Amino acid sequence: MTRTESWILAGFVAGFPWNPAEQDWTADPPRAVPTVSDCLADLFPAERGIEPWLQPLIEPWYRSLQQAADAVRHRPSDSRTAHVLSTSVTVTVATELAAMVEMWIGDLPHPIRTNLAQPVAAPPGRTLGFEVLGFDTGRFHSWLCYRLDTQARDKLGIRTGDAALLTSLDDAQRVADMANNNHGTHDGTPEDVSWFPALITEH
């Protein structure tokens, strides 16, 4: 699934899968979709002991598995099952993503910026697949936000796996290239969103 690429940990999120509403535009995804984008999923922060003004800039990201797991343990009671997901990127994407985050937040201690500056692999977990993410002024959009899954199917013949994630890095890179090449077109995405493939692991 991951070829022979070296994967670098970007960060962790803690929260719930995205549960698409029963509407026409969400007819295809399954009823529970793992995603690290807080545009779709209900992700939550933890007490980090940082300046309050900084917290909105780094949410919903955690630097370590311990921090993310603590957020799950300390969450309010809820009937839903929370999980911890990590995001990893290739060496090439890590360099580009680090530059984008630094351009946006400077030298402030964003978890992703900190992790990419001290590259390590994600801890062991269950590999779920690949999500195509788009970075835009601190937010990480999912490819599902713009229904790039539909375009990938219609234009590239690429289909998702059971969890609405892609099953190969090659497919994820092709979707990211399609999105980046279609900026500003009728079915494209905003020009200030930079798309890249990410490996999603559940812990």
Would you kindly provide a written description of the structure presented here, covering whatever features stand out?
The chain has 203 residues and is α+β, with helices and mostly antiparallel strands. Helices cover 28% and strands 20% of the residues. It is built from six helices and five strands. Strands 1-2-5-3-4 form a five-stranded antiparallel sheet. A hairpin with a 2-residue loop joins β3 and β4. α3 packs across α4 and α5 crosses α6.
Care to give the gist of this entry?
With 203 residues, the protein is α+β, with helices and mostly antiparallel strands. It has helices at residues 55-58, 65-73, 91-105, 111-117, 148-156, 169-181; strands spanning 7-15, 83-90, 126-136, 139-142, 194-202.
List the helices and strands and how they pair.
Elements: E1 7-15, H1 55-58, H2 65-73, E2 83-90, H3 91-105, H4 111-117, E3 126-136, E4 139-142, H5 148-156, H6 169-181, E5 194-202
Antiparallel strand pairs: 1-2, 2-5, 3-4, 3-5
